Amino acid sequence: MNETIVCAVGNVATRPVYRELASGPSARFRLAVTPRYWDREKNEWTDGHTNFFTVWANRQLAVNAAASLDVGDPVIVQGRLKVRSDVREGQNWISADLDAITIGHDMARGTSAFRRANRSDGGTAAQAAQPEPNWETPPGDPGDPGALASQQEPEPAAVT
After folding, report:
1. Sign of the alpha-carbon dihedral angle for 85, 59, 131, 113
2. Considering only CA atoms, which of 69, 139, 134 is closest in space to residue 103?
3. Cα 112 to the chain's mean position, in Å?
4. 109-to-9, 94, 112 alpha-carbon distances in Å
5. pLDDT per residue over 48-100, tens digit each?
């Protein structure tokens, strides 16, 4: 309920590490997020401070992320922000983790070829082989509002 959901846009900084755990598949990688801004004095784009997040993915998202992501890929990650503080060897450490809900390539910065994951929930080959539906409305289709006028039957002509 009281979770902090964030959307981070950045680059994959480390190769995803995939593990099969007792609770199911898990993957993690580091995400580098660097804001850019226009520096009016220099008249050029300037990079701001880079923030690093550890992104955690579970179940099917972990499988797909491990198979799809490479270092340097521009991605968008939506997930629950978890900030942790820890003491290691007398030093205070703070880390920011994202428990990913969804991960995708940033299409504003490149192209991607999407492939559906194989379903392991009993889908049949016949279901997978079905063609993509035609979403275009053919002319004269009753669903086409412009075709209504052409579908109305003409009034019969008077016979003399």
Report:
1. positive
2. 69
3. 11
4. 11, 31, 10
5. 999 999 999 999 999 999 999 999 999 999 999 999 998 989 999 999 999 99
Q: Name 84's Cβ contacts closer than 8 Å, sequence gap at least 6.
A: 94, 95, 96, 97
Q: Are 115 and 71 in contact (CB under 8 A)?
A: no
Total count of residues recorded for the chain: 160
Biggest alpha carbon–alpha carbon distance for the chain: 108
- 13-55 residue pLDDT tens: 999 999 999 999 999 999 999 999 999 999 999 999 999 999 9
Secondary structure element (H or E) that encloses residue 6, with its range: strand 5-12
Taking the C-alpha atoms of residue 99 and residue 80, their distance in angstroms, rounded to an integer, is 5
The residues near 38 (Cβ < 8 Å, ≥ 6 apart) are 44, 45, 46
pLDDT tens string 104-113: 999 999 888 8
Q: How many CA atoms lie within 13 A of 104 on its CB side?
A: 13
